[in-house]
C-alpha cells in the first residue's frame, strides 16, 4: 500500500507542470486525483477554476480554494484534463470507473485538448482487462436487458451492491470481456439500450501517461500507435 501511495503522489505532483497558466482545467476522480488536488493547493499553481467530474472532486476542489465551472459553461476545448485509471495500456487506452464517475469523466476528457493520466506503476498493462472489470452506468429500469446483452457479448456482469453514481444510477461491473479491440467493445457496450456509459476509454485516449514509482521518480509515456516513448 505504501508503495502504491508513493507512486500515486509522485505522478500527481508531476502533473502540476502540465497546467497552463490561468486555464480552466478538468479534474477527474479517485485516490490519485486526490493527491493532485492537494498538490495544486500546496504548489500555488495558479488554478482558480476547474470542471469537476464528481461530487467528491467538487468538495475537494472547494477546500483548496478552486471555484467550480460547469462543463456546459466552460470555454471548450478545455486545455487540460487530469485523471487516473484503473488500467491503462501503452496506446493510452484505459479502463476507468472504479469510483463510478466514468460517465462524467468521459464527457470532460472528450471536451479537453489534452488528457494527462496519472497512475502508480501497478496500473500500466500490456492489454486491458487483466485485472479491472469494465464498469457500466445503467438506467435502473434497464438492468435486466443490459445484463442479458452483456452476457451475450461474453461478459459476466455483477451489480455493484448498494452503490449508485452521483446521478443515482446503478453500476454493473463486467468481467471476462474480450478486450483485444477495446474500441470495438466500447462501441458495442454503449450501443446497448439502457447503458449510459461504459468505463472503456479507447475512443478518447490519454495523451500523456505519468507513472509514479515507489522511489518517487516518474516515468513519462507518450502513447502512439507504434507504442510509447519513455
Structure commentary:
The radius of gyration is 17 Å and the shape is globular. It folds into 2 domains: 2-125 and 203-214, Rossmann fold (3-Layer(aba) Sandwich), CATH 3.40.50.1360; 134-196, Alpha-Beta Plaits. The strands form 3 sheets. The chain has an 8-stranded mixed β-sheet with strand order 3-2-1-4-7-13-14-15, sandwiched between helices. It has a 4-stranded antiparallel β-sheet with strand order 9-10-8-11. The protein is an alpha/beta fold and 230 residues long. It has 6 helices and 15 strands. The longest helix is centred in the first third of the chain and has 14 residues, at 2-15.
Summarize the model shown.
With 230 residues, this protein is α/β, with parallel strands linked by helices. Helices cover 28% and strands 27% of the residues.
